[in-house]
Amino acid sequence: MGKNNRKRPDHWSQRAKDEGYAARSVYKLMEIERRAQVFRKTKRIIDLGCAPGSWSAYARKLRPNAKIVGIDIQAIEHYPGIFFHQSILDTAPNVFINALGGTADLVISDMAPNTSGHKFTDHVRQIELAHMALNVAALTVKQGGAFVVKVFDGEEAHDFTLAVRKIFKKVRRIKPEATRNESVEFFLVASEKREPPAPVNTQP
Question: Is 150 an annotated catalytic residue?
């Protein structure tokens, strides 16, 4: 459930190192924030698949007084919030809500599988992770809140987008500049969560 583990250095990787971030992926979130302002007025944030921690570090920089809860099967040292070293599959939604002291304003997810090189297999595995993230968002984000999730493009992406639209009023697709040229990933940026009750299971 960790993030894609490609390590080939490039301009963004060097920039992340120079600026003290653990991964180049932070610049994807920065662009999403410039274009969509998902962190505006957020007080409670959940970061799913948060290792190696760059998204949470950026969230802490933007919202120094916010409560941030992260979860990943990879360990993280010096996490800028409350960290659960475990799988989402083993974590009930109320665990996040209790740790935050209330429902979340924003859920962010950069989760991706360890890629196999088989495009369709990787796509299906990543969409499964995206559905897990959506389930968490459906049950933890307050009415009016927001959700950012990585998606691998492919034949299941459209149905997943429709599932997000059932829960959030506004959904846009963003492919940040820092995304690798060969990557099929994009991000869905969803806002204005609809009134509860949200579905417990978003799988089609």
Answer: yes
Kindly name the residue from 67, 150, 169, 193 that is annotated as catalytic.
150
Note the pLDDT tens digit of each residue in 2-44: 444 445 556 666 766 656 665 678 899 999 999 999 999 999 9
HSE-CB for 9 with a 13 A CA cutoff:
5
CA pair distance 71, 35, nearest whole angstrom:
26
Quick one: tokens of 58? 């950026």
Which pTM value belongs to this model? 0.87
